[in-house]
Design a protein that fits this description.
- By secondary structure, the chain is an alpha+beta fold.
- The chain contains three helices and three strands; from the N terminus they run βββααα.
- A three-stranded antiparallel beta sheet has the order 1-2-3, with no helix packed on it.
- Strand 1 and strand 2 form a beta hairpin.
- The longest helix is centred in the last third of the chain and has 12 residues.
- It is elongated, with a radius of gyration of 17 Å.
Length: 94
């Protein structure tokens, strides 16, 4: 996403507006609280935020890297990605 343009109307008249707090789960560092920059368009008044689709899928908290690296664990343990993350957290403590 080109942050100097509104994705709704295409104008360059956007300003930083606020932050959205989300929790992301990374492969190396685990759960992390992240602040994502929000913007408001001065022309149409709509808000939007920094595009994170290269890092995480829409409506997901698990990073793409974690998902791709965990595929073998999911198939071996026949569990969910959430359970794999719990398993990885437990193994890191040993």
């Amino acid at each position: 996403m080109n942050l100097d343009r509104c994705p709704h109307c295409g104008t360059r008249h956007v300003v930083k507006y606020d932050f959205t707090k989300i929790t992301l789960v990374f492969k190396e560092i685990g759960k992390t609280n992240v602040k994502v920059q929000r913007y408001i368009c001065k022309r149409c008044g709509k808000t939007f935020q920094t595009d994170l689709t290269s890092l995480v899928d829409k409506n997901s908290n698990f990073t793409n890297e974690l998902k791709s690296e965990s595929e073998h664990l999911i198939s071996n343990y026949l569990g969910s990605l959430k359970n794999v993350c719990k398993f990885e957290d437990v193994t890191q403590n040993f």
